[in-house]
């Protein structure tokens, strides 16, 4: 119970911090990976370098929680998609510490609404037990006054 309270407190603090950034662009996202869901908040994904914090949201089937910090670099940016890669460091209740190299494609399918993106991401990861590969798909929305 204490662990879930810590994760919830961290996520609420992250959202409060993000709301104080008046003119900054912030993105929020929800991603799905098998039986795990991720909720993310981060900086402007249209910049060359951007960051994101994710909470692994447990549920009935998988009650485990976790936190991740990601740093991304946009290798290729167009009006329709961004290709990015980076580094991920995380901690969860199953394997404790983990690290990975996320490689992603953010597709912006609606011409008049570029804040909305579809994210597909693959991450080779190392945890305390072994090497694994994770695939995510999800939706991301950039909160901005400038679009």
Write out key terms for the chains shown:
147 residues; mainly beta; Porin; nine-stranded antiparallel sheet; 9 strands; 12% helix; globular
Instruction: For the record, give the distance between the C-alpha atoms at the N and C termini, rounded to a whole number.
Output: 41 Å
* CATH fold category name: Porin
The gross shape turns out to be: globular
State the low-pLDDT regions, or none: none
How many structural domains does the protein architecture include? Answer: 1
Give me the strand/helix succession.
HEEEEEEEEE
What's the main sheet like?
A: 9 strands, antiparallel
Helix content: 10-25%
- Secondary-structure-based class equals mainly beta
Q: Give the overall pLDDT as a whole number.
A: 84
CATH class: Mainly Beta
Structure report:
The chain is globular and about 45 Å long. A hairpin with a 2-residue loop joins strand 1 and strand 2 (36-43). Strands 1, 2, 3, 4, 5, 6, 7, 8 and 9 form a 9-stranded antiparallel beta sheet that branches. It has one helix at 2-19; strands spanning 26-33, 36-43, 49-57, 66-77, 81-92, 96-100, 103-107, 116-127, 131-143. It is mostly beta strands and 147 residues long. 12% of the residues lie in helices and 57% in strands. The protein is built from 1 helix and 9 strands, in the order αβββββββββ. The model has no long low-confidence stretch (mean pLDDT 84). This is Outer membrane protein beta-barrel domain-containing protein.
